[in-house]
Amino acid sequence: MLLTAQIPESLTPFSISHGSLSVSWLLPYRLHCYATRLYRTFEATLAARSDNSEHPITLLSSVELAAHYMCYVAHETQANTDRACTQTHDISKLLLEDFEATFLRSNDIHTLASALPSSDSAKDELLRCYYETCFITKHNTPLNESALLKAAREGIVSLYTTFSGQGCGGRYFDELRELFRLYPSFVGTLISESGNLFRELASNPSAGRLFSKGFDIMAWLHHPQTTPDTEYLISAPVSFPIIGLVQLGHYAVSCRAMGLDPGAFQRSIRGSTGHSQGIVVAAAMSAADSWEAFDRLATSCLTVLFWIGVRSQQAAPQMSLSPAQIQDSI
Questions:
Q1: What pLDDT, on the 0 to 100 scale, is given for residue 320?
Q2: Which region is the signal sequence (predicted)?
Q3: What residue numbers bound the domain in which 33 lies?
């Protein structure tokens, strides 16, 4: 497979490989030497990850190999300085431009990922690599307008956003973990700042003794083994604000993946509603007409949900049923 950078400079072939997979580019001669050095370190990193028994990485297609190398080079841009930084930045931009021209071909990255004969985890890694590279190189996405939003703008369809209430069990935290892992460039700041807010609110004396296992979502995300049990996660003071954060995260990802700010996205929506606690999120997002407004309203929204959860728990504390009561209800 040959990817050609459209740059009016002297070009030279450059290839990378992993097992039976290979990808080739034509890069400016001035970047070839440094791209080769980056590939050597990337190859060692990839080999180490492939041998990792806990979190092995298996690449099944050239598009995956290209995405991982592209993301690796982008992260090196952040780590380097001066001339090396300029070179890695130039290489990152070229790799990303060619990745879009060759693999995406004006399609969305999610469309490409869904068509790959790879595992769900490999598809997730493809999304992460692409969006992290876009974020580091300050590259705007998407290539084309969403067909659904175009239809809404033309009056062919009517779009509404609906935010749900509490679900069953503590699976919502897995959803937050997935958002944080796949789209850190989109929601990393939102989640980390919300984590600071939750810790601050939970330390308020009026919250009582409802947070016996703390309220540190960043610790739970970075160290899954520290995540509290399901009974603690489904308690109202914990679940109310985190479910709200998950919904805000999905809203932010939808906007950023389509290259829109909340105001532009909002203009394509006819209305917004919610069930139970989802009403709070719906009201907040209906007023968010910019990223600045989104951040401000997200803080207010999560604060309201936190206190609703706390007061609900204080007014109706959890009670354990005796085996006889459980048997009698069957």
A1: 62
A2: none
A3: 2-136
